Amino acid sequence: MYDVIIVGAGVIGTAVARELSKYQSKTALLEKNPEVCQGTTKANSAIVHGGYDALHGTLKGRLNRRGVELYPGLSKALNFPYQQCGSMVLAFNDEDEKKLEALMENGRKNGVEGMEILSGEDARKKEPALSKEITKALYAKNAGITCPFNMTYALLENAMENGVELFVNTEVDDIEHLTDGVRVKATKRVFEGKMLINCAGVYSDKIARMAGDEDYTITPNRGEYRILDRKVGDLVSHVIFQTPTPDGKGVLVAPTVHGNIIVGPTSESVDNPEDTRTTKEGIRKVDRSATKGVPGLPIKESIRIFSGIRASVEGSDFMIEPSKANKKIFHLVGIDSPGLASAPAIAEEVRKWVEETIPLKKKESFIEERRAIPHFEELTNKEKEEILKKNPHYKKIICRCEMITEGEIIEAIHRPGGATTLDGIKRRVRPGSGRCQGGFCGPRVLEILARELKLPMEEILKDGPHSKLLAGKLKGALQ
Hints:
The chain has three domains: 1-82 and 144-218 and 313-372, FAD/NAD(P)-binding domain (3-Layer(bba) Sandwich); 87-141 and 219-308, D-Amino Acid Oxidase, subunit A, domain 2 (D-Amino Acid Oxidase, Chain A, domain 2), CATH 3.30.9; 376-459, Arc Repressor Mutant, subunit A (Orthogonal Bundle). 31% of the residues lie in helices and 22% in strands. It is built from twelve helices and 22 strands. It has helices at 11-20, 59-78, 94-110, 120-126, 148-161, 204-210, 280-293, 339-357, 381-390, 406-414, 422-429, 442-453, and strands at 2-7, 27-30, 47-48, 82-83, 87-91, 115-119, 136-140, 144-146, 165-167, 172-178, 181-186, 189-198, 219-228, 239-241, 252-255, 261-264, 268-269, 302-312, 319-322, 329-333, 397-399, 404-405. Helix 2 packs across helix 8 (339-357) and helix 10 packs across helix 12 (442-453). The longest helix has 20 residues, at 59-78. It is globular and about 60 Å long.
């Protein structure tokens, strides 16, 4: 019997797990994929939104603002990247300027500080690459960028170090109501818990229906992106937005914490929550919109295009509420933008609800901090010498583009909830994220995974289920 069962191990599920791990509660975290961070969390804009856009009086508005407050302390404690770089929303005409005024007023109501409307000239002083056609820009000092992958892994590792149990390849098939809680059947396992938290992202409506709640309908929303090479990563230093439209915040141009430029997304409703195709039309739309604000954007320096799926619902707010069928079940539905920015605050919200249902006592032995995997290339000479004394695997460079060592890859595998797939390694320590996109290092990473996990290379997955890279040995040549 668990105190709490959490369904879904993206940034929201792991944030909730970490928050509950501060207390004397037995928590199970269920994930249907081979690894955590394989849904919406793996493909988004990586933006910590300032809080001026979410409508005043909504959960989004309140939790976005609180989430931004929590990011500096959380990123420091858990050692994941976060930069408060600020953002700008661009105006090109009188109509756009009115939207900026409305955004600023909404931000003030939400309690957002550090906002101002700049003239076009002042905006270009901060960002010289901006178009000369820009008339004004809303500047928000508190907006930032993070790494959704490293944040999720940091939350997970810390939660597991504090007692949370992770179950991957565990897809929920059925939910039964018990007198004192719930019974969850999931991939040949049965879990019983006093409470269940539904953090299943684009499948949260499906989990809700299993619980007897028919009121939720997720519309998968696909957004397409472009990533530019790090050699042009200094083109912009702020998150650059267009003025919002009924379809959303529009296409952005932004630096990443790893030194690239991210451009996107589009916004398109799709039927299949796994439909992560990219299209010529979508990428052309991204390029047209992005180059309107940043005309010198070097599109030819693109190293990857990709798309992600967001869990949208009818209406404009998060749906965070107890089940009508069973008050021991709590649903988090429609957690789209600004879900990443709000994640730490959403976790607090869930914990408050849990406290109303079962007693929670603070854990005196709670481990608050988490050590990140050291990136050998960024260490001082003295630090390199020290780490090499303990682990000679750091001598061998596996990824030349990102200068990632074998030691980093091995540690990513053996961390709590560690990597078991090629893309799991890529997201944790970045081999395959550079110019060649794994063309050189991919086979080496595959070999290391097979060796460390003691599995045949043919069993190693690229990412999700059914993504094996190798079919078998050819005339005994494959070792």
